[in-house]
Amino acid sequence: MTNVILCGGSGTRLWPVSRENLPKQFLKMFDGKSLFQLTVERNRKYSNKFVLVSNENQYFMALDQLDEIKLEDYISIIEPIGRNTAASIAFAAFSVDEEEVLFVTPSDHLIKDDEHYEKAIKAAYEEAKKGYLITFGITPNAPKTGYGYIKVKNCNNDICDVESFKEKPDEKTAKKYLEEGNYYWNSGMFMFKAGVYLNELKKYAPDIYEAVKNACKHIKKRDFMRIKKEDMLEIRDESIDYAVMEHSKKIKMVKSDIDWKDVGDFDALYEVLPKDENGNTKNEKLLALNSKNNLVFGRYKKQIAINDIDDMIIVDTPTALLVTKRGNGQKVKDIVKVLKKINPEVVKFGRTVYRPWGKYINLEDAPNFKVKIITVNPGKRLSLQKHFHRSEHWVVVSGIAEVTIGDKTFLLRPNESTYIPIGEIHRLANPGKIPLEIIEVQVGEYLSEDDIVRIEDDYGRI
């Protein structure tokens, strides 16, 4: 069985902890591990192969985190733009034998009941081998409005026929579902043979099938499979639910009482984080007086004090502060929509920005200058590039820097520096065995990250 992990999504409802450059599935919030890592570790006992579907930034974060948990056997598919799950799963299905059973999972779910999880997977596997498309339904314990619902009939033990899929309801409708019974939360997990899925996609969404099939012909294969942007643009944006599951006559649902949480917003995060005797989330830097049932999140050694505050969400990061009421976690995405128009950088990036070669931390961001700490991992290098609007001054803090400026290449050691004029072609590399750290000072009238012209890049970026 192959586990297809869908790594997409920007986690806007968990802003400002989650940013487009570092979405929620890669945040290490659970005993030093991310939801992505927990997904891999949970499924590696059932799957002998993995297929990761992600965008470019997520791909390089996934590589680092897979290396930490020592997973080596996987295929990576990089989508330049998102076209939803119907296409993502189709790319995965085309990459394996048609008889291979695919276990499709999001990368951002938390599952704690391993015994029932194994039971659900085994039941689904037996049905998938018979040629069914299997979805996993979670028994609802509250009228949640953030989940889609599945209505079932004719249940035989834990296997049910699917009568219909329901979109995310309002609270009144969700309560009605629970009163009627036979409704389950749609977990977004699926299992089926690759060929069965592709045949059903071809039947009910032939345009998506043909567009994905055509894109597969042009995939650039290196250590990963990169899809061309022009091919992705030809694919209709559609979820597997709308494209296939709502139409197919081969659908079965497995009841899955697996202590499942879709940690999609701060209300869901509050449920899974440890709390003190007053219901406040635990934080060694939190002083809470006459306050209860608050989610207070801050991981940056800053003292936080609250007084006479109940049922609030308070999220502190170096570049943004969020304060809202508990129960309104779904509405954070509305804040992000506005911020994308007035301050898009704060949606895309936090203080720390991860790149395939390492990371950088923004220390100071002023109108005409910016200061960063850049860390380049051993054996890695930045692209050969130039800028039209800024000059740069590099000072080595630790490690050895190999610097290319124009047609000259030279080494810099700690406390040595160099200057890159506007428009000059340059590159920074780490030829050593330890991380390279430099201080970079940028000076110019325009300092955004899109002022980069890449001439040559080890990671295929443009």
UniProtKB/TrEMBL annotation:
Residues 347-457 form the Mannose-6-phosphate isomerase type II C-terminal domain. GO terms for biological process: GDP-mannose biosynthetic process; polysaccharide biosynthetic process. One of its GO terms (molecular function) is mannose-1-phosphate guanylyltransferase (GTP) activity. It catalyses: alpha-D-mannose 1-phosphate + GTP + H(+) = GDP-alpha-D-mannose + diphosphate. Residues 287-339 form the MannoseP isomerase/GMP-like beta-helix domain. It comes from Caminibacter pacificus. Pfam families: ManC_GMP_beta-helix, MannoseP_isomer, NTP_transferase. This is mannose-1-phosphate guanylyltransferase. Keywords: GTP-binding, Hydrolase, Isomerase, Nucleotide-binding, Nucleotidyltransferase, Transferase. Coiled coil: none annotated. Belongs to the mannose-6-phosphate isomerase type 2 family. Residues 3-277 form the Nucleotidyl transferase domain. Its EC number is 2.7.7.13. The keyword Hydrolase applies.
